[in-house]
Specification:
Length: 799
């Protein structure tokens, strides 16, 4: 019988008063008399880490999420002691830490309160598993909004929601169903025109409550581990997202073909069926760059094998597909079939690479091959072995990309759909149970896959896609939103999910166009294509159980709409490639919700549908059947209707008429949009002209075009071309200034400049201060001119 009441007490525990502090370099340690230590680390003037321990010392500091290649540094740091609090000041913010209870508050330098602890850090001892359940609560300001948290199937603004992070295989999930496949414990708060971010770097099952339980309190907690979070100050949302993306890392540039259109199904087999699909794309002139093989290409669903009845000579087939412009992408799952005659299983068994239960036996679970064991990807030795397995697929057979699925990890025929929590993991030298490793299992699989594909694809760039991910996975892989459903509601969800992933650091994301489960109507598929071509990752995928989902599975009208919009994506490839370059160089998300684009306009705070594609194209999908138009919000500024070139003044909601073969698309006034000719696949055509659509604006606007060899690593040696384009519009004059960086020589020699919205009739053209006759630049009907690309300044003068 326990008589000690302190042992019986299982409620919340709190830090007591601070008794001392030490300042060591970029860190300040605050010690309480009940052994709580708060370590505050200043990574940048606007990036502060708060790390708590309740045991008087810190465990090994290790994170899979943080990009260790990033260098941090601050400009100013001052620590002062006042009567009731300590103050830490940087050149951007002030942090006050109360002596009585370690509660903290953060202000800007004008003493505006950005974020304030309510109960602050507290914890509950976990007697069942050991360690702590760690908790944090903060006050929510009047009108405060919340965004981010990765792949959540709910409204853009998370105010009033409670959400859970535990990577879960959720087949045919519904609106507001949670948790899903990905874990991104990062959110953005916005109030009083000030943005900040919180990244709770804890891989245990975590929860976030955005004022659901109590209207004025937001909180987050985890079932184990440390209270370890990063505060990111804006004050603009752009600054928050960029800083967080720098912290957790960015991908390398993909080959340009990856940004084309992809076709997938569970499953295309045998070889004759694959060839039938690819041939139909070429016959119908619908551009496509990638064809996917799902689990049926394998021998009994054994990874790294081929079913020779379906694919008797995969190397020949992959080469023949490549000749027609198709890159082959294959699926690889984590479950390794228990089969003593299966070489991958035998290797892993001999080397002791599989995950084990607490009492010693290997973790066993059923997935597609039947009973399987599962590699421990948290072991660096296992990751190296796994990477080596891709030699035959990539180097010998010629596969161009690998798709990791079922890596939450998903297990069939068990109530919780995953590993038991007693499974043990190496965790890169920090041994732990599956409670801690579950949320990062998929990321570590994708990491090992990435290193294997990169090694054997060299000197070309790798392509990897994963279903499950934790913060930082974007360094290795792209992703998609999982097993969605062919419904209008899921079209609405796909739009929000990809926007949210973009501002949560994982920009290279898309959805299964048309829905994975069930069968779309032709109208729904067409509307989904019209949205999907404006997502960074663009792939049709379906379960195949409910019918066919190729563009020609519907009617002629849907075929034509698919061709029109996929062709538009291929025209916009230089624009999309530039978006990606800015994402990896500067951490700028490729898709921008309206609140990101203009947080000072409160009308943007609850918008779900509209988004900015890149920096200068506004897209609003049609999300319901039988629509002949829709109401949408045009953000502040001037915008041209892409289809009609009609100019609109923003900052208001308007009705936009649409046809079945259109959705509302607008271009920012002053933008210069680069376009390629339509190709059936990347690299099909050699062309001598880059089209620049120039939208007039009375004022100034900056645009950019990034290009390189479209694959390989020469761009890292300076062999790229980055054009800075400045558009200056006046009452009777248009000036285009061009500045080029980089050593790459683009293969085309001319620009075809489309002049859109000119308010005057052209009377004179000057190139680099030299007057040019109209016939020398093929100037026609006040519409476009063709000029040599080697110029610095173009003047177009009106009457």
């Amino acid at each position: 019988m326990i008589t000690n009441t302190s042992l019986e007490y299982k409620g919340d525990l709190y830090p007591s008063k601070i008794v001392s502090y030490e300042h060591e370099g970029d860190s300040i340690f605050f010690n309480t008399d009940n052994k709580v230590i708060l370590k505050v680390t200043i990574l940048r003037d606007s990036l502060i880490r708060f790390r708590f321990t309740t045991k008087g010392y810190f465990s090994n500091d290790f994170s899979y999420a943080i990009d260790k290649t990033q260098l941090h540094g601050y400009n100013f740091l001052e620590v002062t002691e006042e009567e009731t609090y300590y103050q830490i000041r940087t050149s951007k913010v002030k942090c006050k830490i109360q002596k009585a209870d370690v509660r903290l508050s953060i202000y800007d330098l004008n003493d505006f309160l950005i974020l304030e602890d309510e109960l602050g850090f507290h914890w509950e001892e976990s007697y069942e598993y050991g360690g702590n359940i760690v908790k944090m609560s903060k006050y929510s300001k009047d009108g405060e909004c919340y965004y981010g948290l990765g792949d959540k199937a709910t409204q853009m603004n998370l105010k009033g929601k409670r959400l859970e992070n535990f990577a879960t295989d959720q087949y045919a999930y519904q609106k507001d169903q949670d948790p899903l496949y990905k874990v991104v414990p990062f959110y953005i708060g916005l109030h009083n025109k000030q943005s900040y971010g919180i990244f709770f770097d804890n891989t245990f099952r975590t929860f976030f409550d955005f004022c659901q339980e109590r209207r004025n309190v937001t909180s987050f907690w985890a079932e184990g581990g440390e209270m370890n979070y990063y505060f990111v100050y804006g004050p603009q949302m752009q600054d928050v997202v960029t800083t967080y993306t720098d912290l957790t890392g960015k991908p390398e540039l993909p080959p340009l073909w990856v940004l084309g259109y992809h076709q997938c199904k569970w499953s295309y087999y045998p070889e004759s069926k694959v060839k039938e699909i690819t041939s139909k794309f070429r016959e119908l002139q619908i551009p496509c760059d990638a064809i996917y093989l799902d689990i049926d290409y394998m021998e009994g669903f054994r990874c790294f094998t081929w079913n020779k009845n379906y694919f008797p000579d995969p190397k020949r087939m992959v080469a023949e597909l490549a000749e027609d412009g198709f890159k082959t992408v294959v699926i690889i799952d984590p479950g390794i079939k228990i089969d003593k005659d299966y070489w991958v299983y035998k290797e892993a068994l001999e080397k002791d690479y599989f995950c084990k239960r607490a009492d010693g036996p290997y973790m066993k679970g059923k997935v597609w091959p039947g009973e399987c064991n599962f590699p421990d990807y948290t072991n660096p030795v296992v990751r190296e072995w796994w990477a080596g397995l891709f030699k035959e697929l990539v180097a010998d057979i010629g596969v161009k990309g690998v798709w990791n699925d079922m890596n939450e990890p998903a297990v069939m025929e068990v109530p919780n759909k995953t590993f038991p929590i007693d499974v043990r993991h190496i965790y890169d030298g920090n041994p732990c149970s599956h409670r801690k490793a579950h949320n990062i299992y998929g990321t570590q699989m994708a990491r090992a896959t990435y290193h294997g594909v990169k090694r054997f694809a060299y000197p070309k760039r790798p392509f990897v896609i994963t279903r499950s991910a934790y913060s930082g996975a974007q360094r290795y892989t792209s992703s998609w939103t999982g097993d969605n459903v062919a419904t209008w509601e899921h079209l609405w969800l796909a739009n929000i999910q990809v926007q949210r992933m973009s501002i949560s650091g994982m920009g290279f994301t898309g959805s299964d166009i048309g829905g994975f489960a069930e069968q779309p109507t032709g109208e729904l598929y067409a509307r989904w294509i019209q949205l999907g071509v404006f997502h960074p990752f663009c792939r049709t995928h379906s379960s195949g159980d409910h019918g066919n989902q190729e563009p020609w599975a519907f009617d002629e009208e849907v075929i034509n709409i698919t061709r029109k919009f996929v062709s538009l994506r291929y025209q916009l490839l230089p624009y999309l490639y530039t978006m990606f370059w800015q994402y990896i160089e500067e951490g700028i998300p490729m898709l921008k919700p309206l609140v990101y684009f203009d947080q000072d306009d409160t009308q943007t705070h609850y918008r779900n549908d509209e988004f900015i594609f890149g920096n200068q194209i506004l897209v609003c999908p049609i999300l319901e059947p039988n629509a002949v138009g829709r109401r949408m919000y045009i953000p502040r500024g001037e915008w041209y209707n892409y289809w009609t070139n009609e100019l609109f003044i923003g900052g208001r909601e308007i009705w936009v008429d649409t046809k079945f073969d259109e959705i509302p698309v607008f271009v920012k006034a002053g933008a210069i949009i680069p376009k390629y000719p339509v190709q059936q696949y990347v690299g099909e055509l050699e062309f001598d002209e880059l089209t620049l659509d120039v939208y007039f604006k009375n004022g100034k606007e900056q645009s950019a075009v990034y290009e390189d060899a479209q694959d390989g690593y020469d761009y890292k040696k300076g062999r790229y071309s980055f054009l800075s384009l400045r558009n200056i519009g006046k009452e009777k004059e248009l000036i285009i200034q061009l500045h080029k960086e980089g050593k790459y020589i683009t293969p085309y020699t001319k620009y075809k400049i489309n002049l859109i919205g000119l308010p005057f009739k052209v009377s004179e053209i000057e190139i680099d201060n030299e007057k040019i006759e109209f016939d020398k630049v093929s100037f026609e009907k006040n519409n476009f001119l063709i000029i040599d690309k080697e110029f610095n300044e173009l003047h177009i003068v009106g009457e």
